[in-house]
């Protein structure tokens, strides 16, 4: 169990670093927009959509990192099954159609906790961008 905890925490750290880099990249992308206060609202939303794509790519990369861990541990015969299982965990869907062995099942809840936190970070970054777009186009 201790090994699984350490592997999970190490993977969570990798995901946090990846998320941090991509949030910074997304916010830089957003901040380098052409003077959004003088552009159309649609232009602002287009930039926000680009930012969303960067953040989603980051979440997908994190799903892939967890999937690689599961695959390297021999939990799944194919990488595609590991990716599917990882996506279900990361998004906290919890379908239960594919389960891990008792030896490594602690990693599932760890990934779910990681997913909740990292999707929350993405949501916070997008909320900031939406707020700025709306503020710039609808001043008080």
TrEMBL record:
Q: Which GO terms describe its biological process?
A: monoatomic ion transmembrane transport
Task: Please provide the record's keywords in A-Z order.
Answer: Ion channel, Ion transport, Membrane, Transmembrane, Transmembrane helix, Transport
> Per the database record, which ranges form the Potassium channel domain?
63-130
Q: Which InterPro entries match?
A: K_chnl_dom
What parts of the sequence cross the membrane? 6-30, 51-73
List the protein's name: Two pore domain potassium channel family protein
